[in-house]
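Q: Can someone sanity-check these two? First one:
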Amino acid sequence: MKMSDRFRNFMRGRYGVDQLSNGLVFLFFILILIGILTRNTIFTWIALIPMILSYYRMFSKNFSKRYNENRIYTNLMSPVYDLLDKIKGFFNRKIKRFKTRKEYKYFKCPNCKQELRVPRGRGEITVTCPKCKQSFDRKS
């Protein structure tokens, strides 16, 4: 029997990894990093607590209890995840705009401030905002 099969058989019926376990591992790394930077061993010892809890949760056979813990964690962390998604979206839009800067020119609607994209090299054009239907002239 291969080692991967043995591990798969061992994990059968166990809870496994979820968002809370990942959060605990992340907390472990943050505490270890703080301990290294401050040269304080107390953080290293405290960092073992979330790591042990993470392993306990992964190997637990009590699905309902672990599921409820994870549900509470995800409900508490949803504003943080939403904020991170907004930040990620902001940077993705800026990266996309930077990559397409040679093909398109970007304007803001003077009425509703909606960002509009028009092809470059068309000369003087009339741009109509799809959101508020305001028309304005710009050079592309």
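And here is the second, same format, sequence then tokens:
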Amino acid sequence: MSIRFHSAPGRRHNRYLLMRHGHSQANARRLIISTPARGLADYGLSEQGEAQLEALLADWHWPAPTRILHSDFLRTTETARRVAAHFGLEPQPEPRLRERDFGDLEGLADSHYRRVWEHDARDPEHREYGVESTASVAARMQGVIASLEQALRGETVLLVSHGDPLQIMLTALEGRLLTAHRAREALLPASITMLD
């Protein structure tokens, strides 16, 4: 799946590909796995996720990345390693690309996401259930691009992250209210969005 995204700010020094990790064991079990305590060492890619990456790499039609940064969760690390090996690159962990922390909902069924998103639609600063606010997620995710813009020129950077953080960042880059992040079409596992 390919999505082109045009953001309002001025021309960037680098090109960015935003990738959601492949289908994971957490997706397969329909669980919320959002904390380092569980996400760093467990809940990697599912067989479906491995197949998605194989198909993606066989039919790659985006610019070839020159750098790959990824959330250090297992599912994103495995995704990044697979893509990096294909392009002969060494992936770099970047903790700011981690999953949004869903607080007290950690380990529960993913049907509980809806409870958080209902609060998100009213208040980007809320921390109901101990979750990380959308404002905080937007700040750390945009911080990754800001850092890369200061450090690099002319690179094609693949950022491998998670669904909610990527949707929140795209909403922020678009200049829309963070309360509208769920109004965006959901990013599918192993999908890539290119920032122009």
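A (reply): Looked at the second one. Residues 104 and 129 are 5 Å apart (CA to CA). Residues 1-9 have pLDDT under 50 and may be disordered.
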